[in-house]
Each structure stands twice: as structure tokens, then as C-alpha cells.
Structure prediction request, 428 residues.
Amino acid sequence: MYKNAQKLLLILLLSCTSATTLKAQLENISLEDCYQLAKENYPMIRKKGMIAKTADYNIENANKKYLPQVSFSGQATYQSQTINFSDALGALPINAALPSLSKDQYKIQGEIDQVLYDGGITHNQKDLIKANTELQQQNIEASLYALKQRINNLFFSILLMDAQLKQNDINKSNLQTQIQKTEAALRYGVAYRSNVDELKAEVINIDMMATEYTANRNAYLKMLSIFISKELSDSTKLEVPETENFQTEIVRPELKAFDLQKSVYELQKKQLKSDFLPKVSAFFQGAYGRPTLNIIENKFGPWFITGVRFNWSLDSLYTSSNKKEILELNRKTADVDKETFLFNTKLDLTQQDEQVKKYTQLIVQDENIISLRQSVKQSADAQLDNGVITIHEYIQKLNAEHLARQTLVLHQVQLLQAKYNQKFITGN
Prediction:
């Protein structure tokens, strides 16, 4: 009995631990988690499965060209004239036994055709299907990659709201401390009620700013929730990404798409060669009708023909050269598109490099300003206690320090976002 109770207690403890872990997972989320969830839940991701399934069907259909091809046909005709054997053979005694062919003739025919050699058309077609499928899949990957930029904007906007709310709380705490001091002075008759009211009014201003920051944060959270298809509550904490140094080599998914497009053009060139090669197949024809192959007998009957069919059409020679030139121009166009993409990407990267330098320098300047504003504010604390300055002047100096700290917070988040924009632009 005692052992059973121990087991039950252990199960309950494990259940509580699992529940706590799940809750922590729901309340904390990283930028990489958002990337992955957004990609998995974006509707376009379902197209990848559809494209793959379509390719399987197309390849299966291409393989079926090696199976025997069965066809049926039939006809009933009436012709104005037929062969007259009596006229053809002259006045021979045997003519009396020769029948004449009927002007109404009938034939029902079935044919089985088996490809022996198609010049590599089917093989090239399957390679082209696979290449086009890979290209379509890569284009979807490139489209899904663009989600990262949208996730970045939302994620860092939330981080900025969090930082501003935190700084707001610090400023509010300083004012509340001063309110307590002023209320004590009021009780001893060395301060005015208006001094307390002015401080409380400033606290309300800070609460109004907090309301705006919180509303913006909730709006960004809801948008992020839609992207990742995961409910994010007001208490959700976003993990601040690491400020690591990223590689500068450009490895965007679009580059692979350009290369795959060129490979499609190369396969289309190979297919042009296959169109020029001869085709060989075996066939069997079976038929029933009148007349049969023995046209001497004007009777209904069956017959068959079997053999090997050879076909070599030279029509492609007329257009092959132009088609090759078109494919070559398409390949060069893909090269130009790739160069254009790299050019624009490098421009964007240069801009972000300058943004990183700018925010790095601004943060240093912000820290110097905060140091000076903090010194002025500390002096104002003493001056207010000694009645040298008014509450209004004190609030001005306090707000100046608060603004400097808010500016620092803004530049810190902007620097972090600029670095992750670099990462996005390069594809690392």
C-alpha cells in the first residue's frame, strides 16, 4: 500500500513538472521559433506537397509510354467504284469465277504498339519534370524565406515596446518616490498641494504612455500569433536574440532558383536533340471486315498484320537552330536576373552595414548623454529638497533623463534589428 502511494505521488510530481514546462514554453518564444512556426503554418507551404505529388503523377504517366499502347478504330464506307477483275484479266475462262468487290466496305481494327526506341524523349521528359519540380519547390522556399523579414519587423517591434515599458516603469518609480517626499513635506507645511498634484499629473502622463506602448505591443503580438498560428498572451516573453557576428557571404535561396532555372534550359536543349532522332516501335494490327487482305474474296473475315515500324521525321531541322538560340537567350536572361539580384542585395547589405555603424555610434553618444542627464537629475534631487528649484523644473530634468534613456533603448533595438536584417539579406 505504501509503495503504491509513493508511485502515485511520483506520477503527480512528474505531471506537475510537465505542466510547468509546457506553460514556460507557451510564455517564452525565440526569434528562431517564430521563423520555423511561420514557415510551417504559412498556407503556401502546402503547395510543396501538391507540387511533389503532381511530379509523381507526371513521371508515372511518362513511364507508361513504355507500356503497349492499344487503340481501336473502325469505318464503314461507300465508294463510287471498285476493282473489276474481269476487265483487268480480260476474256479468260477463269473470269467467270472471280467475284467483284462491293462498293460498301467495312472494317473494325485494333492495334497494339510497343515503343522500342524513342530517341530518349521519355527519359529527357522525366528529367525535365524533376528539374521543373525542384525549381517550383525552390521558388516556394524563396517566397517562404521572405517571411523572415516580416517576422523580424514584428518581433523587434515587440522587443522595443517591452524595453520602453520597462524604462517607463523606472521613470514612474522615480516620480512616485518624489511624490512621497513631497507629501511628507506638505504635511509639515513646507510644500504646496500644487506640487503634489503636478507630480501626480506627470505620473498619469507616464501611465498614458504605458497604455499606448501596451496597446501597440498587443497589436504586434496578435499579428505575430497569426503568422505562427500559435496563441501568444499578453504575458508572453520574447527572448532577446544573440548579437553574434554573421557571415557576409550571400547564400539566399533565390540564387539556387536561378541556377535551377538554367538547368531546366539545358535539359530542354537535350530534348531538342531527342526530337531529331528516329523512333522505332513494334506493332500488331488485328481487324475484321470486308474485304479482307485477300481482296479476291469479297467476304467478311478477320486478318492481322504485325511487324516493326520505323519513323524519322526531319521537321525539327527547320526550327532546331532557332529553338537552341531561344534557349541560350533564356539562359543568359537567367544569368542577368541573378546578377541583378546580387547587385540589389549588395546595395541593401551596404545600407544595413551603414545602419549598424550609425546605431553603434549613436549608442555611445546616448550613453554619454545619459551620464550627463543623470548627473543633472541627481543635482536636481538635492536642489528640490532644498527648495532651490520648483517641481516643474525638476520634472523637466527628470523627463530629459527619461527621454535620453528611451532614445538609448530605441537605438539598441534598432541596432539589433539592423544586424538581423544583415543576416536576412545574406541568407545566413
About this structure: Residues 1-26 have pLDDT under 50 and may be disordered. The two ends are 59 Å apart (CA to CA). Strands lie at 28-29, 69-78, 104-117, 237-238, 279-290, 301-311.
